Amino acid sequence: MDEDISGRKNELFQQLTLGIIKTLEKRPGIFGISLAEKQGADRSTVLSWEQKHSCFLPDDLKNFYLTSDGLLLTWKSKIAGASIPVGRMEINPVSGLTRIGGIMGSSSPGVPSLADLENDSDTEEEILGETKPHFDQRSRIFELDPCQGYGKVCIVYKDTKPVLPAHYPEVWFLDRSLQWHFLAENFSSYYRVMLMHLGLPQWQYSFTDIGLSPQAQQWFNHYAPIRYDLDFDSYRDLTSEESNGQANNMQLDSGRVFKGKSDKRKQPSNQAAKKKVPMLAGKPQPMLGQRSTGAMPQISSKATK
User: What string of DSSP letters covers 122-175?
Assistant: First the structure.
């Protein structure tokens, strides 16, 4: 009986991690793979969190928590006989979904809060076509992964209103300089991206203009060279398309550019003016943010129920 229960648990966690454990076991140099077994959260716990923060968890994230209250999968690498902790995939339990920012003022006099600092960055409203999160009441931000201190992965409810419940969070990465970087439209897409990167150190920085550190690049080159190239090309194309889109959206206002010069010349008739002054408006290009992750396959509901 106990063996049957243990076997079902192992099968469940294999489904939950989409077979990533078997993939890691086949990689040379990887050992010490550890997956912490966690019981599913109670529905009352999930409901209590939603009521406390006036936010509805999306179905994919809610089903994940009902299956396993968080995730912690780690693995090590053996190099020159030394054991080195490398991979780490972590998702906070429901109790660990703590809020970041959202309250003006600080309990310590003279010490600004994140919401206080928001006023200094109001001019930066968009990041690659995505409206960035705010630390004040305009957004509700919760930590999904502490990232071992090099940043935070967060679920972000944007355009929130006081008292009203919030829906449909996105997943963003907050680096140590408090800059935001878009990761995924929903939890399912982020979860799959996390597994594809094998929990390699600082993998979230491959989706930023900062890029990976030299040490992180070495781990990628050793265990996921193709993934590193794909991330680099994807981000480069994304920023290139964004720049082209901004250039094509620029229009020439001949009335402002040539103001003053037309006064010295004979004013042409309306018919002639229309023929001589061409319209130079470029065709607007669609703003392509990092929402390309939305096209990724979703987590099977069978694995999370």
Answer: TT--EETTEEPP-SSTTEEEEEEE-GGGTEEEEEEEES--SSS-B---EEEEEE
Percent above pLDDT 70 for the chain: 62
Q: Which of 94, 52, 49, 89 is nearest to 69 (CA)?
A: 94
Report which DSSP code applies to 295: G
> Using an 8 Å Cβ cutoff, are 173 and 208 in contact?
yes
Q: pLDDT tens for residues 178-211? A: 999 999 999 999 999 999 999 999 999 998 989 9
Q: Token digits for 239? A: 């920023």
- Residue 12 burial by Cβ neighbours in a 10 Å radius (0-12, 13-18, 19+): middle
Q: How far is CA 22 from CA 10, 28, 51, 253, in A?
A: 12, 12, 39, 61
Rounded CA gap, 114 and 136, in Å? 8
- Amino acid identity for residue 224 in this structure: A
Alpha helices, H only, the chain: 2-16, 20-25, 43-53, 59-67, 114-117, 187-196, 214-223, 225-248, 254-257, 270-276, 301-304
